[in-house]
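#dry-run=false #mode=assembly
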Amino acid sequence: MSVANGAVVVGGSSGIGAAIVESYRKQGTQVLVWDIAGEPDVACDVADPAAVDRALATTLDLMGVPGQLTVTAGVGHVGLLLEESVEDWDRVMTINTRGPWLVMRAMAKAAIESSASCSFIATSSVSAHLVDRSMGTYCASKAALSMLVKVAACEWAPHGIRVNAVGPGVTQTPMLGNAPTGSGWLGSVQDRTPLGRLGFADDIAQAVLALHELEWVTGQVLDVDGGLSLHSPIDAYGENLRLGFTVTQDQ
Ligand SMILES: NC(=O)c1ccc[n+]([C@@H]2O[C@H](COP(=O)([O-])OP(=O)(O)OC[C@H]3O[C@@H](n4cnc5c(N)ncnc54)[C@H](O)[C@@H]3O)[C@@H](O)[C@H]2O)c1
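#status=ok
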């Protein structure tokens, strides 16, 4: 089923965004890609407010207000809080949190002006609510984005705009780099994932397209992680299994 009025994917040149674009194209939905890299339909650096305004103007000329907007643009970042630079903190927050806000706000204003109903989805992360040492800035950027989505959902609902987010778990995209998936850190993430594997970009795309269609759902952050974030860190049962012990009811 194609989406009336088309779709925009911000960050659609790579990874999760590219998978969303491909899914739209397969179903015959007109889609415009905004990105800073690759060969986007509309060049846009979400860190630059003027670039967001220009991208919006181009989009309104090309397709009008889209029925669905997905923002996947974002950057990964690793750094211990004691060693983090102010420059890196500002860069990550500017791209991962302020960028989606600028894009959704610009699109919301255009939608309100033309009385168009829309669905917006931002890409948060399980890192918005799970603590990983050395990922403090990234975790904070995604936690802020998840809350932003909830407030925007309440503020814009009277205008017919739904705002949700997906929270991917560990997903195999260029953001993960070339880390081998079968062993080491990623191998153990896979072992601890109830559904038994890492995510693919297509898994997140499937959730995004489905969430866009849910007309009575707004302000939600849907974790798409194969169940990875369900475990308690205590997980005595899982640890015993990993150590090769037989686990009985008496233990
Ligand atoms: N891959 C994962 O494991 C994972 C897990 C949780 C959340 N996420 C989130 O999913 C989103 C997509 O990540 P991905 O894994 O597909 O990574 P990716 O690097 O493959 O794609 C990110 C895209 O965002 C674009 N982008 C980056 N900075 C931009 C800017 N300033 N302006 C416009 N576009 C910009 C990049 O050019 C790229 O096309 C990100 O927000 C990321 O934080 C990824």
